[in-house]
Amino acid sequence: MDVVGIVTEYNPFHNGHLYQVNEVKKRFPDAVIIVVMSGNFLERGEPAILDKWTRAREAILNGVNLVVELPVAFCVQPADFFAFGALRILKELGVQKLVFGAENEEYNFAEMAEITKRVHGNFSTYNESYAKAYQRAITEKTGVDVSKPNNLLGLAYARANLKLGSFLELVPIQRRAAAHHDQQLPITSRIASASAIRDAALNRQESVANHVPHLTAVDLQQGKTLSWVDFWPLLKYQILTSNVQELREIYGMTEGLEFRIKDKLERMGPAVTFNDWISEVKSKRFTYTHMTRIATMILLQAKNEDIEEVEQKPYIRILGFDIKGQNHLNSVKKKLLFPVVSRVSQKVAANLLKLDYRAGLVYSQFSGQRQDFGRSPFQQ
Amino acid sequence: MDVVGIVTEYNPFHNGHLYQVNEVKKRFPDAVIIVVMSGNFLERGEPAILDKWTRAREAILNGVNLVVELPVAFCVQPADFFAFGALRILKELGVQKLVFGAENEEYNFAEMAEITKRVHGNFSTYNESYAKAYQRAITEKTGVDVSKPNNLLGLAYARANLKLGSFLELVPIQRRAAAHHDQQLPITSRIASASAIRDAALNRQESVANHVPHLTAVDLQQGKTLSWVDFWPLLKYQILTSNVQELREIYGMTEGLEFRIKDKLERMGPAVTFNDWISEVKSKRFTYTHMTRIATMILLQAKNEDIEEVEQKPYIRILGFDIKGQNHLNSVKKKLLFPVVSRVSQKVAANLLKLDYRAGLVYSQFSGQRQDFGRSPFQQ
């Protein structure tokens, strides 16, 4: 039986994701599909529109067999680090094939990874001006333009795979229609970018029913949809009451950013919005996404040691499964080196899952739903 | 010319306060009336219903000549410490008489202070069970019941006065009508307790027009009225993202309270209210007010050294004055040992006024009005 992995955010689960799951089933009819999904805070430094339990349920009910959470320490990160955290889990779970969308499915990602093996990033100071330099270096080495976001992510998977002993067969699938950053819901296609769907859902101006499975439409309609607008008062308060020494301890806080972050906010006054503040603190060196990631790290009070602990002590947090996923899990369980967390105890919350637990506490302030204690995986 | 002092919170300025000011004018017709008023966080561990600028303006327009802010380090404290902070400022400003309301104006507060000189409190662990023991000790020594809140406060003024060299003549004025903790607006009297007025104003169920001067009624109608309901999300977030070591650094956090505070909150889930949480963490030893004061200290991230700094480096922060008040200020200015702060510079915000500045930043998140930069005293 094929064991196929997908790395994703499902923010939220839309028709493009469904198309991908169905494509996997077409190509690998007997496959068990394992998804590593970001939790409540995401790669571009923002809260998820719906909580991880809701999104995991959407995935399972749309054909995914097992959903595992990517620890937040890896979620709010640049592509290489994000990919490494996810693939490490997939490897442990016996995944053999990785399916991912790419703007150019004809690229040989494995080869590109081999060629660019010696291009390294300093992930503790992740910043986009580095990202640009990185893209240029890759293009110089491979002759291929990887500036498109899904191609770049594909390369990140390929590089992580190489690092982890090339356990995966890489299966890029041509992305349909929507460009990653399209802000409009297309009229002629049922596939839209996740970000266009979020915009529409958050502003409640347009129906997203044509662009997401029914279940997602209901979740977006009935559930608590969250964004930085909700968490901004907490972040603002945190920055205003922290001193610069405390801010300096936050993961990714380099080159005196703590002064800039605090000073700009105090000067801008109490009515400032999240976007206005980010626009004020970003720069050529520290781009929008760099700053939103740091903003998330401040919000979660994530320090260097919090991230390092997760790097050093991996675990597998189960969010949902169906029978097929459960059977697979049972079949690999005895060989697993990483602890499996299905229910969170006090002890696990205080140790192994410390940062995820804290992120869940913060997220639950607005989602209204507990994220850990008392929650068990969704079972279909 | 008489220089008369009043120590108050004006939360908000009501008919009882107006009666007191008019009573001073009747007894001391030429007096300059100087008020030391708490800022945006108050003795019982709660945010002020209206910001300090609004309340200072109410005071000046109702006949007070000069309003000086009591630093927050002294505001959110038991009576003795509160009184000491306030009287230290009044002494510096040349005040000779202290007027205060008492349930029993016939008490000889100065004598009671003399008799109880050796009854001490440990103010760094202020707690109400101490408070009860303290009241009993006082009653044993003086034969007088000081359990009524204004009598007890009067004794605190008398004790602070004794400590500061008995510079003041104490002038208790019989309190009219409303008991301090009455929760109903009385129909037959135009004087109500501040707490009944706040309740009515916050819930917008009843008009307070009969119980406050016109200006206060307008302020309550048009201004932003704040309570713990507003600040609770910030406090909750702070507790959830702080670890116990960080909580332990907060002023007044003793005997492992940090564990209790954090643990109860996590167990109660995201929907818990401020009052529910306080009810859960309070105990016989740590009463409601003890816990709301600690809650305020956490909200403001006030540490021991923040409080000590203000104790050691007093200052006079001017919130408002009329001509008479300004003339008095000018006449004493040259002799003052404490720095006078009329406008807050970056330097003053970062040093002398650090804690007040931080409290202002927090308060302004909901009042919407800056509390420091760009603000100058109200002038009538």
TrEMBL record, chains A, B:
One GO biological process term: tRNA modification
Entry annotated with the keyword tRNA-binding: yes
Function: Catalyzes the formation of N(4)-acetylcytidine (ac(4)C) at the wobble position of elongator tRNA(Met), using acetate and ATP as substrates. First activates an acetate ion to form acetyladenylate (Ac-AMP) and then transfers the acetyl group to tRNA to form ac(4)C34.
Documented EC number(s): 6.3.4.-
Subcellular localization: Cytoplasm
Keywords: ATP-binding, Cytoplasm, Ligase, Nucleotide-binding, RNA-binding, tRNA processing, tRNA-binding
Binding site for ATP: 7-20, 101, 150, 175
Assigned protein family: Belongs to the TmcAL family.
Coiled coil: none
Enzymatic reactions: cytidine(34) in elongator tRNA(Met) + acetate + ATP = N(4)-acetylcytidine(34) in elongator tRNA(Met) + AMP + diphosphate
Coarse class of the protein's main subcellular location: cytoplasm
GO molecular function, one term: ATP binding
Taxonomy, superkingdom: Bacteria
Protein name: tRNA(Met) cytidine acetate ligase
Glycoprotein recorded as keyword: no
GO cellular component term, pick one: cytoplasm
